[in-house]
Amino acid sequence: MSRQKLILDYVFDHEATHPDKVYLSQPVGGGKVVDYTWAQTLDHARRMAAHLLSRGFEPGARIAILSKNCAHFFMAELAIWMAGGTTVAIFPTETAATVRYVLEHSGASLLFVGKLDTWHQQSSGVSAGLPCIAFPLAPETAFDTWDAIIAQTPPLGGRPNRAANDLAMLMYTSGSTGQPKGVMHSFERITRASECIRQHSLSIAGREPEARMLSYLPLAHVFERAWVECSSMIDGSTRIFFAESLDTFMQDLQRARPTRFVSVPRLWLKFQQGVFAKMPPEKLDRLLRIPILGRLVGRKVLKGLGLDQVLSAGSGSAPIPGELITWYRRLGLNLLEGYAMTEDFAYSHSSTQALNAPGYVGPPGEGVEVRISEDGEILIKSPGQMLGYYKRPDLDAECFTGDGFFRTGDMGERRPDGLLKITGRTKELFKTSKGKYVTPAPIENRLNAHPLVEMALVSGIGQPAAYALVVLTEDRRQKLRDPAVRTRTEEELERLLKEVNAQLAHYEQLKMIVVSPEPWTIENGCLTPTMKVRRSRIEAAVSAEVEAWYDMQVAVHWAAPSRPAA
What we know:
- With 566 residues, the chain is of the alpha/beta class.
- It is built from 19 helices and 26 strands.
- The protein has an eight-stranded mixed beta sheet with strand order 7-6-5-3-4-8-9-18, with helices on both faces. A four-stranded mixed beta sheet has the order 2-1-11-10, with helices on both faces.
């Protein structure tokens, strides 16, 4: 029986069949971009693989990467695999303490240091005895450099392959609910999942002479790793562009003009808010309703965002309001939602052209089995299912059913046609003092759909009723010093409160909306690196104020700047 192709087989095939095709486009500052063909990408990877082999690491040695997205991340991953190692990617925004934990827990033998904004704060998490190699765009260090090693090392020849069950990567979760866990993925599992992802993209976008994608979500996260990096390695015809910085993101989008674009709800919402800052939503809505003109207006808006060439648009990583999906579709962007997690290598459910609906994450993908447990939890078997948690067999026993289904921790409902709706997280359910359970996610989605709200969190554990803590959009926050704007904002929030409560059961209704005095960010610890809300951290930060909020008996309360809600 012939061996099934694995991801490195695909990569070597691309190197052989179209060596001069540009694969990676890396901005290097000052408007300059360096392109790497498949041949150049593999030449770099082969030379670094030879260097790693020369160090005599044990088979399967864990080799870490701490870097923002860049071409050398892809090259380093290929080098690690060809040298017989296992990749451990660390989120580039992690604290020194988390960097230290991941390096020590994984037993990393070497660390690649790349593009970073806060290396001066993170460096203390790297032990002095750990060998390090600096990418070309890394901060100034005394480490050996990638370019110097490549220049003096002959490339590794042949097609150095790996066994299907070899460990390809340890993916550490972003730690929204505690200490990060190391999810183990084999070459066979990441290959099968990536093949399915590629096939799904083709079913939406069709076969393109050259698909274009912008890589900007953290490569340490499974969404970007699977849907951008690994699927492009399987595909071979996709050109990957990288973002230079947060400040240049919109220019980077315009440079890439992606034909496939995946993002998270927070960024889809930020795009919308940017549009509304230039054109009031009421005016845009009127224009979009006009035949012919509406299509032209929608096209112009998408062009301004750099998304007018997109054939396949996806949202994942967290729930997205159905109203936001509908809004993008009115512009002419066929935004489709999906659902997956680190534990199934981002391959579970994806909306299709035939099966999709706002508020639903699509049907299960090919080869995916799904069922809903008696208590409403979604249980999944996926071709991309993890081997288990690194050094945590106790968690494996908790997370799998007796017949091998993964307990997702998400609550859901399925339609007869297979479409799945996520109704909340089992661990996020909370009980009010009246003994009723409240599911926050659906209520938060209703709040997030309002153009005034950037992010929302619903809580109220042990209180008479739930409350909502919201962050206003940046545009509105900047205008709050004007008393008239503040008053108008309060009136809008009161109307929003009434509108949301009218759609909820009595025991779910919100007592009040509380406005956070500052945004929630990755830097202040309120968001994970993939921009999910760190619920427990925010709840703990405001815990001393909650009783006073309820005593005030007001519909809208402004949290005091002296006691930040985040």
